[in-house]
Input
Amino acid sequence: MRITKAVITAAGRGARQYPAFDTVQKAMLPLVDRDGLTKPVLQIIAEEALESGIEEICVVSAPEDEAVYRRQFQTFAANLRSAYKGAPWAEEQAERMASLAAKLQFAVQDEPLGYGHAVWSAREFVAGQPFLLLLGDHLYVSKQDRRCARQLLDLAEAEGCSASAVQATREHRIVQYGTISGRRTHDRPDVYAIDEIIEKPNPTTAELRLQIPGLRAGHYLCFFGMHVLTPLVFELLGELVAQNRRELGSIQLTSALNELARRERYLALETSGARYNLGVKFGLIEAQIAFSLAGVDREEMLSTLLESVVRIEQGMG
Output
């Protein structure tokens, strides 16, 4: 199995970060990447896919947002060339943005009916092939040379089945993520056969149904915001859409994934890396610090953080 297509869901406005995401798509917020260049979040996510071997990308957007995204990419590139005329880094970034914009395709989610519905909206782009699915508000830092997405793609392609990236997550954060139960495979300690997924469980439910032997106490395996899925998921999502079957008020991808696990082999990979959720409080700040510490600006960020903490503490004393 070879995966060449990726879907990025970016239709939501992000109510938890109102009013910022009410006026600009959260996928277009600027962040300094590990290479020191300031980029829209969507570009960083797309480069995660492209540098992992993906050839085609579809962005699921709200109605009329395609024009907004394309206009913002053009404006960013034009402003870079105008403000930093002759600067090699500015020209490089402008060219990268223009190249990326030319590669992007869009699918419209007509109504905000949930994450599962957003994924289902990309069915024509996927066209019966396995695909990589990425969230438009999650960023990743790998702990190895391979990108996090490449790690997941390698597993899915080798095993010929669906696979989701997971991360050991402390109990107090599991209410933010889909959480799995499963069994470690015999040949790899970082790979699990998925038994069940519960969307945003409370600690009591997790303790009763989602404990996995071998994990640190108080930790559970939560979704990483990254999946490789077979085309069966669109059949399952189509059934949910047709029946208007909603959980937590919306059509959930988790519902389809639980059925997928019953019908096909479905694995989870404990990814060597970290995810950063931009949709939660301080998420953007945490991601920016992590990206700076993992990139060319590491020493500058360490110095700035230390100086800032000292200055703030002295000012409060």
About this structure: The chain has a mean pLDDT of 91. Residues 5-162+224-238+273-316 form a domain with the Spore Coat Polysaccharide Biosynthesis Protein SpsA; Chain A fold (CATH 3.90.550.10). Residues 65-83 form the longest helix (19 residues).
